[in-house]
Amino acid sequence: MKKALYILSGLIFLASISFAASIAVTKPANGDVWAKSDAHVIEWRTNGEMHAKVKIRLFNGNGTIRIKGISDDTPTDDRRFRCPPNFFNDVPGGTYTIKVRTLNNNVTGISAPFFIGEPPTIDRTVEEVGTIEDRRTPSPPPFGKLIKKPTNNIPNLNRNIRHLLPSIVITHPPKDHVWKLRLGNTALPFPIRVMWRKTGVGNQDSRVKIFLRRVVNGVQTTLLTQSTANNGLYRGGISRDLISSMYTIIIETLDGKIRVESDTFLIVNAENDPH
Questions:
Q1: pLDDT digits (tens, 9 = 90+) for 260-269
Q2: Which of 175, 213, 225, 253 is least surrounded, with the fewest CB atoms within 10 Å of its CB?
Q3: Run of H or E residues at 100
Q4: Measuring CA to CA, how many Å separate 96 from each of 24, 25, 60, 92, 162?
């Protein structure tokens, strides 16, 4: 009986230690914007006893898909890690999170969502000129000398012409869509469909070729079909051995006059890419 009580007390003590240990990622903060070309610092706080080293990973916005390895053996007590300039150049612009996890996987901290990409630039010259002119009160023209300014429609006309040129818009898969490779019969290729619509006026090639492009974890482009009808729908299959990563679809007419790329989406292979 005493032995059982000792064991139970030990388990309760270990559970209390495990429960008390925690990691809180404080940087990046919610809504931060990290420019790809800049250096960035990841910071965290720790509480309780835990493994002496942590690994750091970049995950997608909701923390479910690993995108990029950052560090494999940073001392836990450092509580910070510096990413050098251009470290995120291979990561498409979008929303991400950072995970800091002990090497024994017992304690994990995840950051708030933040954005990786180039921040928008503001043309200060235009803004300042506009402000100055807003303050100026124009003088009325002399009576009888009102002159109508000539209207130059050429730029607008050129823009309209460009919009009317033949083009293709990829509609499926949409941004942040997920293909889960391990659903269904794993002995067969994973079935996919790609959808698009033709825009503009004028003729375009009646056939297209389609590519699957991995944009992180090593850029790689795979030909899905050398030629298929340019009718807005392609059904095919992809290998179930693809790694979990972010991908895009590329559609190109056979004459090479039109080439477009979709928004990024996720391919998830839970079996081959554990968190």
A1: 999 999 999 8
A2: 175
A3: strand 94-102
A4: 16, 13, 5, 10, 35
